[in-house]
Structure prediction request, 432 residues.
Amino acid sequence: MSNPIASVNQLIHHLGKSVSLRGWVYSKRSSGKIRFLMLRDGTGIVQIVWMKGQIPDTTFELFDKLTQESSVIIEGKVREDKRAKGGVEVDGEKLEILHIAEEYPIGPKEHGPDFLLSNRHLWLRSIRPHATLKIRDRFVKAIRDFFDTNGFTLIDTPIFTPSACEGTTTLFETEYFGDKAYLSQSGQLYAEAGAMAFGKVYCFGPTFRAEKSKTRRHLTEFWMVEPEVAFNDLDANMVLAEQFLEYTVQKVLAECKAELEVLQRDTSKLQNVRAPFPRISYNEAVEILKSKNIPFEWGNDFGAPEETALAESFDKPIFVHRFPAKIKAFYMKADPANPELALGMDCLAPEGYGEIIGGGQREDDYQTLRSKVKEQGLSEENFSWYLDLRKYGSVPHAGFGLGIERTVAWLCGIEHLREAAAFPRMMYRLRP
Ligand code: 4AD
Ligand code: MG
Prediction:
């Protein structure tokens, strides 16, 4: 075909011109002497109109053969149409069929979530997953831009690790040339080494946890972005986290209007994501729960119901800080004002989405950290390199981890975070 190749989302720039379009049949219908074809090309969907008499009869015959998701190359002239979504329609001139699709399993009717997840490789083509994953893509771009423009260096941390970062109960074990290795639960410990070398770093990659619970908030494989900053304390860490969330969420709001509309997302709560966020201590949080008659014992960790109850008192994300040290990881620094508390912080999203960020200030004293490693029954040999960081110019430092799927689920307003991953991994799902 001879016309310039155009993508559907660029057609508005080709008004009055003939172009070549490549894609898949989303749907089609006929009405008397007119045929309508909705063409999907990954960037959008456009209606192609075919008029009997204006194109050869053979093209009409080809049209009748088309099935949903058949792949085609189409030539046609772009015409303005204010009623259409992208503001254009195309008058079909030529049609070339690349492949006639077999009967497509996903149609306009309601399908159950299990069926759709089993057909995730095809379901990606539908409008809602397409919008969700596009938002994820823009969110990730905004994350990288934020760190890039704020002086951070990307440090890729390993996936094969010799030991746990976030507790031994959710480790995925794998054989490693006669030794044992574990899939990384977090890149944090390595990012701390990076922060001592580069000052401000972040790692960004897949992390793994053998979550045996079937909840709507847990995957076994999820992506986490983890900044780590030398000389930051807990307060500076919260300032970084709120600036980071404000920047990335506002970017998504500005760049993904169409996608958020497809998902019928009420964006008013997202508009509110502006620093500063309210900060409440764990102790204050316990009081709030009490005042709401929610049974809760000091010393326990918050579950989904407690997080929802805490967040609903505010109209934007909140920080909860200074948790009981007992429920937090070994690397957290104890609060000098009360050693029973750890200088940790969580950021809770509104609307019942719960914890999206976990982090805090790290223990920077060699002896204290060494005894914590021992207390937790962790191997000193495996952590000797990590302890080294406290031997050679130890400084206060802090960081956090943001779960991508949890945050994307909140941004999109979707019920279960499995839809925020292209190919989600859960206890009962390894395929496709
Ligand atoms: O609170 P977490 O366990 O913190 C850490 O891993 C720290 N090492 C991070 C750091 O300080 N550098 O996990 C951080 C975030 C959570 O707030 C949540 O958003 C997400 O990771 N997350 C999960 N997302 C999906 N499925 C799971 N099973 C998750 N577990 C944690
Ligand atoms: Mg956490």
In short: Residues 127-149 form the longest helix (23 residues). The chain has 13 helices and 17 strands. Residues 8-99 form a domain with the OB fold (Dihydrolipoamide Acetyltransferase, E2P) fold (CATH 2.40.50.140).
